[in-house]
Amino acid sequence: MTKIAYYPGCTLKDQALGFEETTIAVMKKLGVELAELSRWNCCGTVYSLSSDNLMLQTAPLRNLVRVKEDGYDAVVTLCSMCYNTLKRANDLVREEPEKLDKLNLFMNREEVDYTSDVKVYHLLEYMRDEIGFDAIKKAVKLPLEGMKLAAYYGCLLTRPETLGFDDVENPTSLDKLISAMGAEPVKYAYKTECCGSYETVSAPAAVAERTYSIVKSAASAGAQAILTSCPLCFYNLDSRQKLAKKSHGDLKEMPIMYITQPLAVAFGLDQEICRFERNQIKPDSLFEKLMSPSGEST
Amino acid sequence: MKLVISKQAIENNQLDKVEEISGEKIYRCYQCGRCSAGCPMVEAMDITPNQVIHMLQIGDPEVLTAKAPWLCAACHTCDVRCPHGIDISRIMEAIRLLSLRRNEDFLAPDSLPGEVYEEMPQIALVAAFRKFTA
Amino acid sequence: MKRIGVFVCHCGINVASTVDPEKVVEEVSKHPNVAFATNYVYMCSDPGQETIRKAIEEHKLDGVVVAACSPTLHQNTFRKLITRSGLNYYQHETANIREWCSWVHKDKEEATRKAVKIVLTAVEKVLKDENLEAISVPVTKKALVIGGGIAGIQTALDIANAGHQVLLVEKKPSIGGHMAQLSETFPTLDCSQCIMTPRMVEVAQHPNITLMTNSEVLEVGGYVGNFEVKIKKNPTYVDWSKCTGCGICTKECRLEGKIPDDFNQGLTKRGAAYIMFPQAVPLKATIDPNNCLMVTRGKCGKEPKCVAACTAEAINFDMKEEIVEEKVGAIVTATGYELYSKKNLGEYGAGDIPDVVDGLTFERILSASGPTNGEVRRPSDGQVPKEVVFVQCAGSRDKEFHRPYCSKICCMYTAKHAMLYKHNVHDGQAYVFYIDVRTGGKGYEEFYDRTTEEERVVYLRGKVSRIFQDGDKVMVWGIDTLTGKKVEIAADMVVLATAMVPQEDIKELSSKLKIQIDENDWLSEAHPKLRPVETLTSGIFLAGAAQGPKDIPETVSQASGAASKVLALFSKDTFERDPLIADVDEDLCVGCGVCVEICPYGARELDKARGIVTVNPVLCEGCGACAAGCPSGAITHANFSAKQILNMVTPYLDK
To answer: Of B31, B39, B82, which is closest to C481 when you measure between CB atoms?
Structure first.
C-alpha cells in the first residue's frame, strides 16, 4: 500500500464529504492510502494576486510545512481551488527565494523552515502520472457502459499555464478518467469556461447565466451529467440551476457529480459513500440501469 | 462627456499604485481587447476589462468607481490569452485593493441573509470575503 | 623617425562640449613622433579633409591620427583621403574620443585627460602600422540563386539579363513559390498566376539561366567570388528529357486521390505521380518518393500503372539522386516564407475545425484554377458560406505565446479576401476582426476604403478570444472595443490570417551558408536601414520574405537590389579584400592545430606534411581569435602585432 499525504481543505469535510469518501475508497482499491495531514488549516481559497503583500501566502505555505512535518515530500489534494492556491504559492517561493526567506520569518514560530521542496499534486494528476489510467481501467468492475459524461475542468485546473499539468485550451486528463470508467466523455465547448466562482455570493444572477451556458453546452453534446473536482464549481453548476431556470425556461436538469463518485460506482463500491443526498439535482437515476457482474442492478 | 487629459491627471489616477500592487505594466497593453472577448463575466460588467486598462492609461477616474473589478472571478482566461502576457486579473485585484486597503468593504458580511450562511459552502464564502472585504 | 599628424575634431559640440580639443592638441604635441597637431570643427567636412591633406604635404607626415567619432563612420573616408596624398591606405588610425569619451562622461577635465590617452594610444598604433595592400581575389561570374519564388525569379532574371550565368535552385518540382498559389494580388487584383507565369517561362527559356528544380543546396564552401557549392538533385523518377507533361500518369496512378495536395493546401488529394499545378515550370511529372509504392516498397501491383500509361516511356524508377558541383561568385538567398501552423492556436481549434482555414487555403478556394473553380465553398460540406469571419493577427503581434512581430501583409490580404468573397457571394456577409489596419503601400489605403465602403465589410476592432465548433456553425467570440461590447458570431467559415514564418529548415541553410539569422529566425541583413540586401558574409545576399515579412512589390524591389549587388561584384574581374588578417610565423608554429579549431571561418588548415598551420588569406576575416589562442605566440595579425598592442597600452598606464 503506497501512502501519500492528503490535504482535504475545508469544504471536503462538509458539503463535499461525498468527494472525500469516494476518493479515499477508490484510492484504497488502487493501492494508495491517503494519509490526511495530522494538522492543516484553510489554504486561503483564492491565491493572492497582489505583489506587495506576502502575508497572504502564509496560509497555503503553512500546509506545506505540515506535509514535511508528517514526513512526506508530496501531497495530494482533491479540490481544484486548493490545488491551484497551494501549487501557485509553492511555485512562487521556489522561483523567488528572497520571498521564501521573508515568509519563513513570518512563520518563525514553526519548528522548521519551509524549503519549497514539496510536490503538490491534484488527484487527477496523481492518477494520471503515478497510477495510470490503464490500472484504473483494470480495477473497474462495473463499466459505466453507454453513460455520457461531460468533463468540466473549469479554471483552476488549467490556468494559469504555469500550473502545467494539462493543456490550457484542450485538457484531456479528466476525459481519460471518464473513458477509464467505461463511460463516454462528451466533446463540448465549455469545458474550461469559468462558472463564476465566488461571484455566486455577490452576483448570483451573473453566475446563474454561466450555469445556464455551461449546462446547455454539455447537454447539447449529449451529456447526462457533468463531472467536476471543485466544490465551488459543484455548487454553482448544481445549486444555481434553480435560479438559471427562472430566466431560461429551456434549461433541463443536469446532475453534477464529483469525479470520483461515478468512479466509486464503477469500482463496485456501495453507492452510499457517494452521498448523493447532498446533490440538489439527484444523479441516482443514471446508475439505475447498470448491472453488476452477478446480474443484479446496484 | 469630456475627459481632460494631462500628465498630472494620469498620475493622480493611481496608475503607479496599481502597477506596484499588481506587478503588471499598464502601458504594455495595446488594447487588442482579447481579454474582454474571453471574459466569462464581461456581459455583467459596466466597462470591459480592456476599457479598465485603457482608462488607467489615459487617467479616467471613472475606472476607480466602476463595477467591473468587483465582477472579476479571477478565472485567468484573460491572462492565458493576452498576446502581451499581461495578467489582467492582477490589475483587477489591485484596483479592488485600492479601496479595500482604505477599509472600505465591498461586501459587508452582515449584509448577507442568514440562509446564505446555511446553504453556501465555505469555499464560496471564504473566497468572497477574501476578495471583497477589507 | 616616423612623423605622425594628429587631427582633433570638435564634431560640433558632440566632442567639444566635454573634451577640450585645444588641450588635447597641446598634450599630444609633447609626443616625440607627433610632428603636427591641430583641431577643427568638423574633420570629415571638405575643409576639414583639406586641412589633413595640406598638413601631410607641408609637414611630410608618414601617418595620420584623426581623433573624432567611431571608426565605423569615417575610417574609410580618412583612409581614402590619405591615399590621395600618396600615403598607404593603412597609415591612418581613428582615436574614438566621441563614443568612447565625450558621449559617456560629464567631467570636462577628466574627459579631456582620457581623450589624450586615447589619442596617444592611436599614435602608438600608427607608429608601428605597416603598409599593406588589399588582397585581390578573382571572381567567378556565375550566380547561385536559392529559391524559385517571385524573389528568386526576379533576381535570376536581372542577373541573367545583364549577361551573366545564373543557377536557380528550387526545392519543389516547380518554381513559383507561394505567389503561384494566390488567386489575385492586392491592390490591383491582378490574377497572380497571369502576371507571374510570363516570368516563370522567361526563366525557363533564358539562355543564361540554368533551372534546377526538385533540388537542394547540400554544401557551400569557399568565399566571395569563389564559392564551391554542392547541389543535390533529388530524383523525380521521371526522365524530364522525355516527359511531355501530358499528365496521364497523374490520373492513372494507383494512389490517385489519396495524398493531400500541398499546392491546394490539402483541400484536394493527388496521386504519387503528380504535376504541381497546370502552369508549373517545368511542366513535368514528378513522383513523390514518400508515398509512391514502387519507391517505398519496391512493388506497385503487378506493374506500376504510370509506366504502363506513359507513351513517352519517361518513367524511370532506377533514377538516383545526383550531386552537382558548381563554382559561383555570388549567392542570393531567396527562400521565402511559410505560414504559422494553425495547430499552434489551441484557442482557435488547433487546426481541428475543418471550416477554420488559413490565408493560403482561402486563396486556393478563391482561385479560378483551384479545387472549387473559384466558387467560395466551405471545406466541411461544400456549402456556400453566408457569414464569413476573418481573424487578423492570428499568431502575430504576440510577444507571449507566438510571433512577436507584425506580419505586414495580412491586413491587406484580409481586405482583399473579404472583397473577393463579396464579389463571389453577393448576399454574403464578411466580418473582419482587427487590432489595427495597416495599409502602408501605394494604393493600399484606397483599396481598404473600397472594402468597407463598396463591399460593406464589417470591421470589428478587437482580437478574437475563442473559436469552436457548434453544430454546423463555427462560433467566434470576440470583442468590439469601440463600443465596449463582447460579440459573438455564428459563422459558416472562418479565415485566420496566420503569421508569416521562415522556412522550417532555415537554421540548417543559414549554417551551411555561414550567415546569421535573427531572434525570429529571419535571415539577418548587414544593416537594417542601409544594407537590407546584404549579409555580413561577403558575397551572399538576401532577397524577399526570407529576410522578413514583406509584400510582392517590396520583394521584387529587394530582388532587383540583390541582383544589383551581384552585378557590382561581377563588374570587375577581381575583388579587393581587407588585408588586416592573421598570418603564421612558421618558425614559431609547432603545428598544434588549436587555432584551426578556434577559427570560425575555416580559414586555417593544418599542413601535416610541414607540421605547421597555413592561413587562407581570402577566408580570414581578421577577428583575432586565433592570435589570442595560440600557445606559441606564432600568430601575427597585420597591424595588430603584440608589440603594437603593448605600446598602445602604455599611455593608459601613465597617470
So the answer is: B31
pLDDT at C39: 95
Q: Rounded mean pLDDT of C589-609?
A: 89
B81 interfacial to chain C (CB closer than 8 Å): yes
Mean pLDDT along residues C30-43: 95
Name the interface residues of A facing C (CB cutoff 8 Å): 167-170, 189, 220
**Closest of C634, C626, C553, C636 to residue C595, by C-alpha:** C626
Q: How confident is the model at residue A291 (pLDDT cuts 50, 70, 90)?
A: low
For C:451-470, CB contacts with A below 8 A are 468-470
Q: Flag if A167 and C347 touch (Cβ within 8 Å).
A: no
By CB neighbour count within 10 A (0-12 exposed, 13-18 middle, 19+ buried), where does C646 fall? Answer: exposed
B vs C, Cβ pairs < 8 A, gives: 74
Count of the separate structural domains present in chain B: 2
Give the pLDDT mean for C433-454: 96
Interface contact A210-B77, CB threshold 8 A: no
Q: What residues of B are in contact with residue A155 (Cβ under 8 Å)?
A: 73-77
Break chain C into its structural domains and give their ranges: 4-134, 142-226+325-336+505-570, 248-309, 338-501, 581-637
pTM of the model: 0.87
Domain of residue A108: give its range. Answer: 2-123
Measured in Å, how far apart are chain C's first and last C-alpha atoms?
26
Residue B91 placed within a domain: yes
Instruction: Single out the residue of C446, C513, C478, C418 nearest to residue C218, CA to CA.
Output: C513
Look up the CATH number of domain C4-134: 3.40.50
- Identity of the residue numbered C309: A
Q: What is the pLDDT of residues A57-79, one digit of tens each?
A: 999 999 999 999 999 999 999 99
State whether A60 and A110 are in the same domain: yes
Closest chain A residue to C467, measured at CA:
A189
Select the CATH number that applies to the domain covering C142-226+325-336+505-570 from these four: 3.50.50.60, 3.90.45.10, 3.90.79.10, 3.40.50.300.
3.50.50.60
Choice among A259-263, C173-177, C425-429, C628-632 with the minimum mean pLDDT: C628-632
Asked whether residue A11 falls in the same domain as residue A115, the answer is yes
Specify whether B118 is located in the same domain as B94.
no
- pLDDT means over runs of 10, chain B (134 residues): 91 94 96 97 97 96 96 97 97 97 92 88 94 93
Assess whether A267 and A167 both reside in one domain: yes
ipTM: 0.94
Give me chain C's average pLDDT, please.
Answer: 95
Mean pLDDT of A185-199: 97
Q: How far apart are the first and last CA of chain A?
A: 28
A15 close to B (CB below 8 A): yes
Q: Do C347 and B81 touch (CB under 8 A)?
A: yes
Contact indicator for C501, C396 with CB cutoff of 8 Å: no
pLDDT band at C190 (very low <50, low <70, confident <90, very high): very high
Work out the minimum CA distance from A244 to partner chain C, whole angstroms.
21
- Chain C nearest C-alpha distance from A189 (Å): 7
Q: Do B121 and A193 touch (CB under 8 A)?
A: no
Contact at CB, B75 and A155, closer than 8 angstroms: yes
Residue C586 CA, chain-centre distance (Å), reads 40
Chain A environment of B130 (Cβ under 8 Å): 44-46
Asked if C346 lies within 8 A of A170 by C-beta distance, the reply is yes
The neighbours of chain A, by the rule of 3 or more Cβ pairs under 8 Å, are B, C
Question: What Cα–Cα distance (Å) separates residue C17 from each residue in A3, A72, C24, C68?
Answer: 76, 68, 13, 13
Q: How many domains does chain A have?
A: 2
**Sequence-distant (≥ 6) Cβ neighbours of residue B102 within 8 angstroms:** B134
Q: Distance (Å) from the C-alpha of residue B52 to the closest C-alpha of chain A?
A: 17
Residue B21 resides in a domain: yes
Query: A118 and A162 share a domain?
Result: no
CATH class entry, domain C338-501: alpha beta
- Residues 341-370 on C with a CB inside 8 Å of A are 346-347, 350
Pairwise CB contact (< 8 Å): C397 & B34: no
CB count in 10 Å sphere of residue C205: 10
Q: Tell me the CATH class for C581-637.
A: alpha beta
- Mean pLDDT of the region A196-214: 96
> d(Cα C162, Cα C229) in Å, to the nearest integer?
23
pLDDT digits (tens, 9 = 90+) for C92-113: 999 999 999 999 999 999 999 9
